[in-house]
Amino acid sequence: MELAHVVRKRKSVRSFKNKKPSWKDILEAIDLTLQGPFAGNHNHLRFLIVENMGLIKEIAKLCEQNWIKEAKMLIVVCSDDTHLEKVYGERGLVYSRQQAGAAIQTLLLGLTSLGIDSCWVGAYSDELIKEKMNVPQHVQIEAIVPVGFEQGREKKAEKKPLERSLYWEKWGQDRKKGLFEEEGEDYRPGR
To answer: What's the pTM?
Structure first.
């Protein structure tokens, strides 16, 4: 699938069929995340794959998001900042968050390209989930990603138009003459 198509096709799915994705496809999507950028090429990410339905239900409770229990598989994205902090000091924590976010986005796009639906969950009780899954205290849980196949067809949420997300040269300067105007050359990606 072409990248622009995958990006526009990806959406957050919160209702799953009773069908489990292939673990081989899940590994393929995770492998794609490992091809992304890492500060100093230090990959600090770890992935927990959860297939046990009892554990998935407990994690759904700890996230206070009941719909998660419908997923037949979860990917818990974790990061160990220890090495990045040693190499880059406090800035290593910033790099860690940046790398984790980029990797999670790559994971979501990889899943979409393989026909697997998902949702990026960022609300959960870190400490309780760490305890439940034996995650060491120094490791951060970056995201919980329920995966599966969409039950029904939810409409994809409208995204903010490009022209409402840009500034030119200075904060608050939102116009570049002629860019989004009806006359002359009009640039609107995806249209």
So the answer is: 0.84
